[in-house]
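thoughts on both lines:
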Amino acid sequence: MIDARGFSCPEPVIMIKNAMATKEDNYEMMVDNRVSLENVTRFAKHSGYEVEYMQSGMEYSLSIYRSPSPIPDGDISKK
């Protein structure tokens, strides 16, 4: 869990960027302002991840995960 509550941009984006250097498929992150939510989401999507979030009061819990690769046509070995 990356806890970026209390940090303003660009710190949350830098935190997720550093975490993504590990090349994991999934990350969980907490932020406490809309600007950080939007900037982290934009960065994650640009980096090939999908983002889902839940809001509780003024806090956002983000699930950041790598999108499944589409199966090429004719390649049934992965179906």
